[in-house]
Amino acid sequence: MAKVYVDGNEIEIGDKERLNGIQAAERIGIDIPRYCWHPGLTVVASCRMCLVESGTRNAETGEIQMMPKLVPACQTPAKDGTVFVTNSQKVHEARARVEEDLLLRHPVDCPICDKAGECYLQDYHFDHGQKERRADIRPFTSRRRDVGPAVTLFVDRCVMCSRCVRFTREIAGTSELMIVNRGSHEEIDTVPGFPLNNKMSGNVVDLCPVGALGDKDFLYSQRVWFMKKHPGVCTGCSTGCSMWTEENQDHVYRLKPRENPHVNHWWLCDEGRYGFHFVHSDARRIGLRRREATGVYAEIDWSILPGEMQSRLSTAGRLAGVLSPHLTVEEAYLFAKYLRGFDPEAVLALGPVPMAEEDERFKNGFTIRAEKCPNRRGVEAVVRHFTGACPTFYELLPRIEQGEFGGVWVTGGYKEPAYDVDVFDQEIADRFDNVKLLIVQDIFASPLWNRADYQLAGGTFAERDGSYVNFADRLQGAKWAVRPPAGAWAEGPLYWRLLNQPGLFNARKVLSDVAAEIIYFAAAADEVPATGVDLKINQLAMT
Amino acid sequence: MPDFEPVLLANINKPDSHTLRVYEAGGGYSALKKVLKEMDPAKFIELVKSSNLRGRGGAGFPTGLKWTFLPKDHPGPIYMCINADESEPGTFNNRILMELDPHQVIEGIILSSFATRATTAYLYLRYEYPLSLRRLQLAIDECYAAGYLGKNIQGTEFSLDIYLHRGAAAYICGEETGLIESLEGKRAWPRIKPPFPAVEGVFRKPTVVNNIETVACVTHIAARGAEWFKSIGVPSDPKNPRDPGSYGPKLYCLSGHVNKPGCYEEPLGITCRELIDRCGGGVWKGRRGKAAIPGGISMGLLTESEFDTPLDFNALAKVGCLGLGTAAVVVMDETVSMVDFLHNSCRFFMHESCGQCTPCREGTRWSVEMLERIKAGKGRLRDLDLLLEIGDTIGIIPGTTICGLADGAAWPIKNAIRKFRPEFEDYIRRTNPNGYNQTEPVLSLDPRRSPHSDVVEIAPWWPEAHHHG
After folding, report:
1. Residues of B with Cβ-Cβ distance to A46 under 8 angstroms
2. Cβ distance of B359 and A48 shorter than 8 Å
3. Given pLDDT bands bounded at 50, 70 and 90, which one contains residue A141?
4. Which of these, A526, A423, A449, A464, lies nearest to A334 by C-alpha position?
5. Given an 8 Å threshold on Cβ–Cβ distance, is A160 in contact with B361?
6. ipTM value greater than 0.85
7. Is the pLDDT assigned to residue A306 strictly greater than 80?
8. Separation CA B223–CA B12 (nearest Å)
9. Which of B188, B214, B416 is nearest to B322 (CA)?
């Protein structure tokens, strides 16, 4: 055990841990301000904001020998006996000077800056800056240029931390960004003709400690202090990145990566980051509709659905259910339970799994997976538990075509347009001709939707409460961020109601039942941490 | 002081001094042959160490000691970098050596590489020296032909290749890790240390970076021995066991307001006045000297009364200068305005700051803008304190930057204002008689609070200010 001393507090650090001064101080809640240092990037120690006093303590005599000059905490390893002083007068003065320097030519256009409210420069100015501006340099310029399709650069707001440059070199591996010119004329720029258009470009906006790099998708759409953050899981692919869904008044404005060392570290790809607009698409289906004998759809009230389903499903004969890989574990479980309640032999199948051609892997290992759905493994495990096998949708289709099933319930929830093809196209819809009772639950219309007997408007990822199992058997929880539009029901609450459960839908309670009942999910029996649980431990027990 | 026989510049007045023929005729490469035959690298390092040779590039670090920092038994390759990015204003001693006696330099490079077991040497040459480039390349080609370079030099196991690398004219490439980055093809941003170049330098291999003049001295130490070297210069302070002294000949670059500017070889420890009067023929036009830069602009200033300071590695710090630097003495006569001097030197550092560390990048720019305002007749006395604060808070001594060049940017500010404060105050009082004493915040967000602010407002905000005024 190495002992490190920060402001007189003793911190124990494991032998194999390699921490710097900032990380060591963080252990006891001391925040050392920094711009250029980021745990996921290499150390450049150039912003000089994290300057602290450092020294060594002799373990035997207890004597402390301090270095005469200030050192950057990001570059100073926390070794046994290292002493950091982060609150001395000298340190405060150094921080005030750096803060003053950075604000010399900063436009201070906070009122029109998207970053205001989550800006390091603002925060640190209040914490460490000086009251009075002593410089008389004209700061009122704000040049802007686009560096890529998703990212725009406000040149004069930049503090030259070079995080974005290092990101494109070290994480994305595409090296589009660079620093041009020298000294105080330095600017971030791209090589002409090579814009920042890699699939991880949005991360540079998160990395930017100030408002220099702006997200064109989010630009000027919402002040950050109005938004609330909800922990979620990206449903773009089977990587299942942890993320924050940020909304204000039931409108999602942006998605941000949520740090998770097991899955995505600090990153989120552009596909996931910007792939949420379908939530507020005008094309979303609203309401519950029943096809009358005349072939015309009639809007019916959701309150009569339980009764209606009760009578129709119990008389439909053999039932089949198609469980979309976009369903959460809880929803899949409730749905399977519901169908099997009417027909204990009901056949369950995994819905279509949209696939891209291949995984896209970046320099540091971040991968956008070809499987464009969040929960194939979770749904498969639930289906297997109920039926012992998990046929795919396409294996089920011939049996549907032959009229084996009296009633089929298809759940969707795919983005529009679903990955490259419409998953429920006309050809597939035609094969449902022999089905007497077709229930389709989806968020967008499709040929299959148009021939359904019941059309149930469903929910999107932002409206779902539940858990997803990613490609590596890691189960992560997501909280609902917005309410579904009036007239649509997220699957979880709907199934809860159909099953006549008391009170409001409680995903945690369902997950406890799932964990108790299905051994694959046993690890989720207790509280699931924010970074998720690895279910693989129990797979060993299964075999 | 008795007349000193030039050593480093002994050849430069011979016709065709840059050719191998002339150099060999003067005894050139005999030291190399001797060392290769009689010594092993460890013994040669000992020789250089015992001569107390200190690096001529600016910092004055003992060269032999630097070589011993290389890891022992490293499988290699080990690289030798020769810093010829001579961009300190006022400095041109490397240029004389490279243009007029390149073989002396190359012999030193070969000897230094032999000592450090380096098999490749890079000579990082300043962009502005095209003649040096041609003559060095010519000399290197001659050496390959004569068997002084290449495989198995002079029939020994030792092999060496020298590559000339021409820089792109940036002051920061003279910083050793900046040079290394630039050599690797990257932006010349100095690296954070540790690791030091001796452990991880060019292409992540152990590297020694030496100045041109340093390796030229190595040639003569090999030829004449450490005792000869220690017979020249200022002996070490007996009270300070860690002081390596200031031994050996040194090329002083004398320029500015003197009658005979030029590069003069003198023993270390010559005083500034001696240099000006004896070598430079005194201050020009019969005027009095006012100040002198002792060793390149980044080392600070000597006032006329401090001209008797010896120009060696230790004495200059005692009068508040940063050090000997490159020993480039720039003399200013009594007509020079220190405001102009400071403005010019700050402009240089603003232009050449690499922009990596915030305090240097912003501080150099801020000081220029402040001096420009002072020169435009809007100076305030409090600006001087602010300038001093900028000067005192950037550099590696306060610990606010990665490389030492920020110290160099700060030193002229500190020295000029501390040593010539009355002149600055007079200037401000004279040029800004109404506002010199203003202590109000210079820029307030409310224009009513600082009517003398020279900030140009883009939008006429606070319309009520009109009624007020």
Report:
1. 189, 356-358, 402
2. yes
3. low
4. A464
5. yes
6. yes
7. yes
8. 18
9. B416
